[in-house]
Design brief:
There is one protein chain. The chain is of the alpha/beta class and about 200 residues long. The protein has a six-stranded parallel β-sheet with strand order 2-1-5-6-7-8, sandwiched between helices. The longest helix has 26 residues. The relative contact order is 0.16.
Length: about 200
């Protein structure tokens, strides 16, 4: 997804679980949310696809991301390599090298985005967990350079508790964190990305 003006900023957005069908309301929603917010922020957006077999029980054929520490260790290396390769191909096609890269995700993707930050699995200038995300201590966290991390969730979303714990963990490690609660339901929302872009830019070096 390309903005109308030239930019060297990239958003890597990790979707929530999506069904195997080529077209679906879930897929259309998060693609629309990311496209509109990215255009307003004038950034390039890349939406890598997760992996089948990582979604919750009952959704075995759906695409998802690792959402626990054990799943991260088993599947993250291959997923990170795939994302890195796609980023390199995109830079080659556009003829640019991105100077700033942000990683964010919603629902299932939020948990993986959080894990990438906690383990230092992917180098980024900022992270975001929207409508999802959880925190757990990692051996890597104390050694990582703090990055701005946005946490957004719906007021009555059942994932709110985990998202707040993630924010507490990161703050304890010295990371700049913005927590935002909104009167919305579960899933990707434009308000989250609008706020995240603003927060990341406030902390840009």
């Amino acid at each position: 997804m390309l903005p109308p003006a030239h930019t060297r900023t990239l958003l890597i957005y990790l979707h929530g679980i999506v069904p195997p069908e080529r077209e679906s309301a879930i897929k259309t929603n998060f693609e629309t949310v990311v496209a509109l917010a990215s255009r307003r922020a004038n950034v390039v957006a890349m939406l890598p696809r997760g992996k089948r077999g990582l979604a919750p029980r009952g959704h075995e054929r759906w695409w998802g991301w690792p959402t626990t520490g054990s799943a991260y260790k088993a599947h993250a290396p291959a997923l990170i390599q795939s994302i890195t390769d796609k980023k390199s191909k995109l830079e080659a096609v556009l003829g640019v090298e991105f100077e700033r890269v942000y990683v964010a995700g919603s629902s299932s993707g939020a948990y993986f985005a959080a894990a990438l930050a906690l383990y230092g699995g992917f180098t980024a200038d900022g992270f975001g967990a929207m409508s999802g995300g959880a925190g757990w201590k990692t051996d890597e966290l104390p050694r990582l350079q703090p990055k701005p991390f946005y946490v957004g969730y719906g007021k009555h979303d059942r994932v709110a508790g985990g998202a707040r714990k993630l924010a507490e963990l990161l703050r304890g490690a010295g990371w700049p964190v913005k927590v935002a609660e909104h009167p919305v339901g579960h899933g990707a929302k434009q308000i989250y990305l609008d706020e995240a872009f603003s927060f990341w830019r406030e902390h840009a070096n």
